């Protein structure tokens, strides 16, 4: 393992890097203010971040949406009068019936009470400011839906757009901009990629993704107990024994019943193990990173908590240096915090400004960082930013090497292709593309290749670490596997105009609030991915996906978190190998602000990140929880064939962030269904 280049406090010449002090406390407290939003869909910094707390009425405030409501164009509010009302009534009834038939039987009733001229509404406040967002929105809705003679002229597509929060000025109910063609309306099932995937099956049989025994059909796979017996008896030759051990590892997928549930007061944004499995970190929306000693994966110890002293909105990403001595973590600013993982070093974190110290104070003048990664030699950082750019930063020289605007939208994820090489890297963006870069030629500001196939923006990318395979998650509710050898050249991208299918989408899908329906999906005409995985939900936030580790799973699987509260594990042929239920094991937990009114609302769990232990059959799901998802958990799931566990402590131990048992965090309506009578002593 290479030595870390950060042998001293990384203070750049001048003021590029600073050491935090007590004065940062006030800055940290003030940093909890939400960042201002941008009204443009798909291009705002806030679009990719966690949502604010909700009130008991279910209204979720979002700066970008509020800004859009206030600044909407009011110049063309007048509705067209219809001369032939009877004819249009018949057409509207027919269109509405078509939409009703394809929408699952949903009906909407809009009731508007109007006052007679001069009348006074007792519920109105005389001091209401007509310029307030809420009043402006009410006026806007009334202007749109009012018609002559008290009749409302609002078609089905305009009503749907209004409910989804979109501008309906330019939407004609006869126009198919909002309503897809009849073959793609609700109820239509598009031709999704075939499952099982033939290409994925070939990858499984090739041995690149773990051992595969062609002599054992899927219907006659040996049970784990039989494989253990074969191992103890020493059956087979050396090759067969090695294959048997690999197949044993593949069968030990963690189960839904948790070993332990760690509770946090805020949502957990990401959590991962170190490459050796001795360390785990969890990043929270409260700008704190908790560090745990996991040298015994079934007996954790919390030993340190560090914070981002001037964060904006939330922590966005974190990464360990190759020697595990430093943890880099980021927020919506251009500064990266470095915290030593040594438990004896209790000082504040150091910071490096990836903008090179050339920006003015304030996050508006810098750029937010969505993703950060160390190179394999630990000498370089690469970051994906909200300025549509990829930043390559030299840690030893403490200066940016390149800042390339390589995408047409936010760069949500970056990673190196090979853990041993700092040269080839990938970037994934909201412009729906993955681009391949060679750091030795980035001065030309042109990518070496590209992948296209996602129809919505990317939320995360992960490299297998072999310099060849890459995995991506997209807002089109799909995960894709790519091969570097199949990357499209820059010339081919331009010749085929390969980004055109996603440059002008016929509908506007806002993954923060809206549901993604199957009829919205359509294949990319130039898709150069190997395998497409579906079934999970990529909504509300930038949900992550990963390759399973070679040690504990023999590299057999790919997996992802999901908005529906599950961890999805796939075989390489796109068939689902397992679904780990995180929502059920966290439902009903006692969290801050969990009032009786909140209990009447639906419990929600979103799994944002999943870390699989490199050596043990155990994974950790980092989640958001609660009716408004304003709390968090990290649930430890291990392989267990049965629900009965005789180990000490018993399964389902409920602890706080410092791994201290706390019965006050547990509600008997939740995990009770997963627990046995013998486990009661452990709460």
Please, could you describe this protein's structure?
- The protein is of the alpha+beta class and 683 residues long.
- It has 2 domains: 86-106 and 127-184, no CATH class; 252-682, YVTN repeat-like/Quinoprotein amine dehydrogenase (Methylamine Dehydrogenase, Chain H, 7 Propeller), CATH 2.130.10.10.
- The strands form 7 sheets. Strands 26-27-28-1-29 form a 5-stranded mixed sheet.
- A hairpin with a 3-residue loop joins strand 15 (424-429) and strand 16 (433-438).
- Helix 7 (224-233) packs antiparallel against helix 8.
- The two termini are 41 Å apart.
- Residues 1-111 are annotated as: Disordered.
- WD repeats lie at residues 404-447, 451-492.
Q: How are the SSEs placed, and which strands pair?
A:
Elements: H1 24-30, H2 63-70, H3 85-102, H4 133-145, H5 156-163, H6 198-206, H7 224-233, H8 238-251, E1 258-264, E2 268-273, E3 279-284, E4 288-293, E5 301-307, E6 315-320, E7 326-331, E8 335-340, E9 350-353, E10 369-374, E11 380-385, E12 390-394, E13 399-404, E14 411-416, E15 424-429, E16 433-438, E17 449-452, E18 458-463, E19 469-474, E20 478-483, H9 490-496, H10 500-503, E21 531-534, E22 545-547, H11 550-553, E23 558-560, E24 566-570, E25 576-581, H12 583-586, H13 596-599, E26 604-612, E27 618-626, E28 631-638, E29 653-655
Parallel strand pairs: 1-29
Antiparallel strand pairs: 1-28, 2-3, 3-4, 4-5, 6-7, 7-8, 8-9, 10-11, 11-12, 12-13, 14-15, 15-16, 16-17, 18-19, 19-20, 20-21, 22-23, 23-24, 24-25, 26-27, 27-28
């Amino acid at each position: 393992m290479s030595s870390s280049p950060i042998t001293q406090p990384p203070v750049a010449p001048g003021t590029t890097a600073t050491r935090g002090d007590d004065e940062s406390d006030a800055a940290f407290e003030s940093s909890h203010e939400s960042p201002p939003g941008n009204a443009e869909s798909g291009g705002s910094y806030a679009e990719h971040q966690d949502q604010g707390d909700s009130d008991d009425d279910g209204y979720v405030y979002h700066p970008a949406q509020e800004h859009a409501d206030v600044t909407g164009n009011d110049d063309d509010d007048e509705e067209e009068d219809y001369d032939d009302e009877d004819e249009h009534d018949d057409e509207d009834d027919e269109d509405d019936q078509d939409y009703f038939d394809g929408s699952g039987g949903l009906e909407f009733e809009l009731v508007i009470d109007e006052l007679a001229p001069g009348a006074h509404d007792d519920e109105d406040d005389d001091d209401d400011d007509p310029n307030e967002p809420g009043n402006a929105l009410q006026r806007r809705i009334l202007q749109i839906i009012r018609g002559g003679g008290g009749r409302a002229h609002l078609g089905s597509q305009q009503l749907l757009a209004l409910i989804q929060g979109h501008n309906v000025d330019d939407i004609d109910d006869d126009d198919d901009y909002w309503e897809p063609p009849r073959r793609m309306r609700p109820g239509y099932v598009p031709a999704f990629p075939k499952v099982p995937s033939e290409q994925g099956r070939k990858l499984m049989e090739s041995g690149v993704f773990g051992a595969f025994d062609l002599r054992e059909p899927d219907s006659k796979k040996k049970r784990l107990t039989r494989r253990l017996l074969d191992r103890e008896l020493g059956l087979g030759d050396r090759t067969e024994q090695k294959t048997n051990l690999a197949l044993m590892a593949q069968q030990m997928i963690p189960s839904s019943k948790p070993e332990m549930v760690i509770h946090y007061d805020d949502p957990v944004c990401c959590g991962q193990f170190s490459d050796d499995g001795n360390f785990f970190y969890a990043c929270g929306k409260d700008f704190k990173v908790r560090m745990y000693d996991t040298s015994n994966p079934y007996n954790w110890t919390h030993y340190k908590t560090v914070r981002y002293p001037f964060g904006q909105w939330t922590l966005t990403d974190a990464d360990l240096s190759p020697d595990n001595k430093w943890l880099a973590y980021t927020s919506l600013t251009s500064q990266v915090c470095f915290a030593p993982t040594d438990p004896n070093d209790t000082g504040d974190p150091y910071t490096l400004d990836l903008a090179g110290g050339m920006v003015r104070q304030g996050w508006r003048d810098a750029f937010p960082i969505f993703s950060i990664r160390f190179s394999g030699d630990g000498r370089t950082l690469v970051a994906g930013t909200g300025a549509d750019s990829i930043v390559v930063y030299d840690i030893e020289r403490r200066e940016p090497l390149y800042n390339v605007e390589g995408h047409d939208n936010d760069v949500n994820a970056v990673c190196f292709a090979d853990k041993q090489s700092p040269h080839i890297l990938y970037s994934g963006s909201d412009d729906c593309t993955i681009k391949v870069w060679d750091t030795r030629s980035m001065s030309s500001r042109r990518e070496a290749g590209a992948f296209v196939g996602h129809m919505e923006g990317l939320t995360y990318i992960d490299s297998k670490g072999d310099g060849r395979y890459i995995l991506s998650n997209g807002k089109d509710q799909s995960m894709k596997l790519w091969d570097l050898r199949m990357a499209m050249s820059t010339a081919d991208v331009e010749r085929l105009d390969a980004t055109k299918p996603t440059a002008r989408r016929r509908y506007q899908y806002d993954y923060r609030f809206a549901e993604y329906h199957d009829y919205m999906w359509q294949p990319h005409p130039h898709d150069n991915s190997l395998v497409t995985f579906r079934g999970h939900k990529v909504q509300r936030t930038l949900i992550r996906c990963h390759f399973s580790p070679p040690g504990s799973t023999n590299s057999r699987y790919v997996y992802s978190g999901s908005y529906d509260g599950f961890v999805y594990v796939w075989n390489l042929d796109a068939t689902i190998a397992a679904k780990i239920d995180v929502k059920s094991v966290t439902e009903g937990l006692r969290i801050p602000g969990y009032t009786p009114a909140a209990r009447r609302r639906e419990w929600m769990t979103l799994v944002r990140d999943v870390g699989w232990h490199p050596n043990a059959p155990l994974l950790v799901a980092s989640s958001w929880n609660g009716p408004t998802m304003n709390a968090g958990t990290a649930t430890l799931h291990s392989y267990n064939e049965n629900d009965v566990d005789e180990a000490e402590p018993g399964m389902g131990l409920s602890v706080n962030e410092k791994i201290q048992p706390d019965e006050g965090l547990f509600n008997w309506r939740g995990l009770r269904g997963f627990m046995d009578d013998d486990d009661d002593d452990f709460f």
